[in-house]
Write a structure and sequence with these properties.
By secondary structure, the chain is of the alpha+beta class. The chain contains 11 helices and 13 strands. It has one domain: 3-Layer(aba) Sandwich (Beta-lactamase).
C-alpha cells in the first residue's frame, strides 16, 4: 500500500512541476533539430520575405530549432570580419584562464615577446580592450583610446598577441575551448593561413546560439555569464571621434584585410568586435529591430550573424543584407525588421 501511495505521489509531482524543454530541444545535439516556423509561433510569410531579401545561404534558429535553411548552408565559408568577435571570445577565455589579469592590462610585454621590440612611446598605454574596441591607435597618429579607427592592422596585431598568450595557433585554442558546440561541418581559424574563421552557416549559428545563451551550452557555463553582462555590449562612447592622423605600421604587420581607417561608423554601437543596436545617445542602429539585437558583421553586410535575444532567434547568412549604416533608411534595417516580425517580437 505504501509503495502505491509513493507512486501516486510521484505522478502528482511530475504533473505539477513545470519541466522546461530539455537540452535536446533547447540546444542542438550532433545535428540541429528542425522545426516548422508555425510550431514556434512565427510569421512564416515574414520569414520567407526575410529569406528572399538576404538571399545567399543561411539558417534561422528559433528556440533552439532551425526553422529555415536555404542555399549551401552546410558549406563552409570565410566569414571575414564576422569572425572578429571570435578573437574577443578567445580574449575572454584568456581572462577566465588567468592568462591575462584584465582586459585593461597593457599589451606591451606581449608585444616585446612576439616582435622583439616595444611599442613606440605614444602606444605604450595600449590595452587588450583597446584592441577589441578598435581604439588601439596602432598605425594611426593618436594615442590609444583617443580616437575610433576600424583598423585591420590592429586586428592582425590582436591576433598575433593572442596566439602568444595561448602559446599555440588560434585554431588550436578555438578547437580546445569550443569543442562542446559539436560543429557538424567543422569550424575554426581555417581561412587565410589560419587568420580568419571558416564555418558553415549552420555551424556558425551554434556560436550565435551559445552567445544568445550567454556562455551556457547544455547546462555547462563555458564562459561566465558575468562576462556577457560586462563585455558584450557597446564599449566605444558615441562621443569618440574618428581618427584623423596617419601613423606607421612600424611592426610590419600584414593587414587582416583592409586599411587602418575604414569607416566613421562604430562609436556608440561597437564593442569587443560586435555591432549593437543600442548606443549611449539612445539611437538604434536598426530602429525596427529589438534594442538587444546585435551582429557579427563581415564586408559591411555580406557575412552576417544576427542575434536577437528577446526573440530567442539567431540568423547566420552569407548573402546581401543591404547597406550598413545607422537609421531607418539603412538597407540593413529592412532584413532586421523582417526577422523581428517573423519572430513576432516587435
Amino acid at each position: 500500500m505504501k509503495a502505491i501511495l509513493r507512486l501516486i505521489t510521484l505522478i502528482l509531482l511530475i504533473t505539477l512541476i513545470h519541466i522546461p524543454d530539455g537540452y535536446a530541444t533547447t540546444f542542438p545535439q550532433k545535428q540541429w533539430k528542425k522545426c516548422t516556423p508555425e510550431s514556434k509561433g512565427m510569421n512564416n510569410a515574414k520569414l520567407k520575405a526575410f529569406k528572399n531579401t538576404v538571399k545567399g545561404s543561411g539558417v534561422v534558429v528559433k528556440d533552439g530549432c532551425i526553422v529555415a535553411s536555404w542555399g549551401n548552408y552546410k558549406q563552409s565559408v570565410d566569414w571575414a570580419s564576422a569572425g572578429k568577435p571570435i578573437l574577443s571570445t578567445l580574449l575572454l577565455y584568456a581572462l577566465k584562464e588567468e592568462r591575462i589579469g584584465s582586459v585593461d592590462e597593457r599589451v606591451t610585454p606581449v608585444v616585446e615577446d612576439v616582435f622583439g621590440r616595444s611599442l613606440i612611446a605614444k602606444d605604450q598605454s595600449m590595452t587588450w580592450a583597446h584592441l577589441a574596441n578598435m581604439v588601439s591607435a596602432y598605425a594611426r597618429g593618436e594615442r590609444p583610446g583617443e580616437r575610433w579607427a576600424y583598423n585591420d592592422y590592429a586586428i592582425a596585431l590582436y591576433r598575433e598577441l593572442l596566439e602568444s598568450v595561448y602559446g599555440t595557433s588560434l585554431d588550436q585554442a578555438f578547437q580546445q575551448r569550443l569543442k562542446n558546440l559539436q560543429f557538424e561541418n567543422g569550424a575554426g581559424f581555417k581561412s587565410q593561413q589560419g587568420r580568419r574563421i571558416k564555418s558553415s552557416p549552420q555551424d556558425f549559428a551554434r556560436i550565435g546560439w551559445w552567445f544568445l545563451n550567454r556562455g551556457e551550452w547544455k547546462g555547462n557555463q563555458l564562459l561566465p555569464k558575468a562576462y556577457f553582462d560586462t563585455y558584450i555590449l557597446p564599449q566605444v562612447e558615441h562621443t569618440v571621434n574618428q581618427t584623423k592622423k596617419e601613423g606607421s605600421n612600424y611592426l610590419n604587420i600584414e593587414s587582416s584585410g583592409g586599411s587602418s581607417n575604414q569607416t566613421s561608423m562604430g562609436p556608440g554601437y561597437y564593442g569587443f568586435n560586435i555591432w549593437f543596436n543600442t548606443s549611449t545617445d539612445g539611437k538604434r542602429f536598426w530602429p525596427d529591430a529589438p534594442h538587444d539585437a546585435y551582429q557579427f558583421n563581415g564586408h559591411w553586410g555580406k557575412e552576417v550573424m544576427a542575434i536577437l535575444p528577446s526573440c530567442q532567434m539567431v540568423a547566420a547568412v552569407v548573402g546581401r543584407w543591404g547597406k550598413m549604416q545607422p537609421g531607418i533608411e539603412s538597407g540593413m534595417n529592412q532584413p532586421m525588421k523582417l526577422l523581428t516580425q517573423a519572430g513576432r517580437c516587435e
